[in-house]
C-alpha cells in the first residue's frame, strides 16, 4: 500500500469511525395513566413498558399520570402534566451525557454513581442553572429540592445559591435564588409563564400536538439548566 492510499485510509478512520461514541439506551420502565411519546418526525403514540425512546423525542404525561424512564445510569420520574424532550443521549469513552428540556411540569431524577464513569446530566429551560454534585433531586422549572448531594443553583444573571440535601431553593426569572431552607410539608407553586401551554390538542410553541391537554391554569417552566456531573 503506497503512502497516498495509507493517508486516505487514516483520514477516513479519524473522521468517520468513532467506536466509543454511541447513543445511550433509554427505555420506558413504568407507566401510570396516560403517557405519550413522539419521536422525531413522527406522531404522538401511547407509551408502552419496554418502549425505547430516541434522541429528540418528546414525552408527555396527562392528569394523574406518570412515567419512569430508565437511562441505565440514571432514572427519571416524569410526573403528571409534564412535557419533556430528550435532547441528547450519548456515551463517549468513559463519559455518559444526558441533556433534557423541561417545557412544563415536574420531574424527579436519581443519578447513580458508577465507578470509573463520569456522568454529565443536564436539565434545561431558559433562565436558570443548577449544577448538581449528588444523586437525587426534584425540579419543577423554578424550584429545586435536593434529597442527596449538593446543588449550586444559578439564575440567568449568574447569582448563585448552594442547596444541600434536605433543602430547597427557588429562582424565578431574574430573581436571586432564595436562601436554602429545610424542606417542609408544603406544595411548591410554579409562578412564571414563559410560553403558551398546549390545550386540547392545540399545537404549542414546541411544535408538538399531543392529545394530552395541559390546563390553561398550568404555567410552564421559567427555565433552568441542571448540570449534574459525577466523576
Question: How would you summarize this macromolecular structure in one to three sentences?
Answer:
By secondary structure, this protein is mostly beta strands. The chain has one helix and 17 strands.
Question: What this model shows, in words?
Answer:
- The chain is mainly beta and 231 residues long.
- The chain has a single domain, classed as Jelly Rolls.
- 6% of the residues lie in helices and 45% in strands.
- It has a 17-stranded mixed β-sheet that branches.
- It is globular and about 40 Å long.
- Pfam families: FecR.
- Residues 59-151 form the FecR protein domain.
- This is FecR protein domain-containing protein.
- Residues 179-222 are annotated as: Disordered.
- InterPro entries: FecR (IPR006860).
What topology does this entry show?
Layout: H1 3-16, E1 21-23, E2 27-32, E3 35-38, E4 45-46, E5 58-61, E6 66-70, E7 74-78, E8 83-92, E9 95-104, E10 107-111, E11 118-124, E12 128-139, E13 143-154, E14 160-164, E15 167-170, E16 181-182, E17 224-230
Parallel strand pairs: 9-11, 12-17
Antiparallel strand pairs: 1-8, 2-6, 3-4, 3-5, 5-8, 6-7, 7-10, 8-9, 10-12, 11-17, 12-13, 13-14, 13-15, 15-16
Protein name: FecR protein domain-containing protein
Pfam families: FecR (PF04773)
